TrEMBL record:
It comes from Aeromonas schubertii. This is Cation diffusion facilitator family transporter. It is a multi-pass membrane protein. SUPFAM superfamilies: Cation efflux protein cytoplasmic domain-like, Cation efflux protein transmembrane domain-like. Keywords: Ion transport, Iron, Iron transport, Membrane, Transmembrane, Transmembrane helix, Transport, Zinc, Zinc transport.
Amino acid sequence: MNRKRRAALLSVCSNSVLIVTKLAVGLLTGAVSIISEAIHSAMDLVASLIAFFSVSRSDAPPDACHPYGHDKIENISGVIEALLILAASLWILLEAGSRLFAPEPLTGPGWGVLVMGGSALVNVLVSRHLYRVAREEESLALEADALHLKADVLTSLGVATGLLLIWGGMVLGWDLARLDPLVAIGVALFILKEAAELLARALRGLLDHRMEEGELDSLEALLRERCPRGTGYHDLRSRQSGRRRHIDFHLTVPPAMTVDRAHALCDELEEAILGLLPHAVVLIHVEPDSVHPL
């Protein structure tokens, strides 16, 4: 099992444990904010399962039906995850809205504080590991999964703070029951923002968005440096699919340059590009440049 699959499996296991714990404590205390967090973790679990499947398939080599590989599976999984998060946040808004106008007393909010704090700690550790693997392997699916867990950390801390205030209010005889659905609404709005950002990132890859500006600048600087005198390039295009960068451009050479020399030059440029972008797929179209006779 490779690093990406191990990281995705770790996320699946941690989310499974957190769902059961949060749901049990949410039902025990009657806190809609905890139940909303359990639903958030359930969405994280679905996202983790999708990520596990996508990273398992995205590294599969090209085949007859998919000659360009399977990298976009990770983008598709990102779209599905974003839509799931969107649906969960809307449900939380509806449930919390009804509780806001008809608040219910909580029992044992201290348990909720303990569980939310423990959940935040677990997700901090897991999300850091996922981010590290995602950066090193350039995996959008793992990055999306790590983003979910990072959001879960913030929302768990928010819920814990709200429950702590409610707990303090109960001790002092204050009625702060409406604070619970208000925190849940805050959680839902945060998740909505997360879903929108993830959806935008995932769709960029599906729409063949070009490489990042910094990578393009580095690529053009490399081509200007490595193209010999009398040669040049134009019509540089790029698109990103998972961790792969698909790059193509026209290389202009003197008309008298031999086919062997032009082919060798293409190999040299491709090798240099792979040194800069290890997972690049490079296609070079050679054409004569009558302006620069040999």
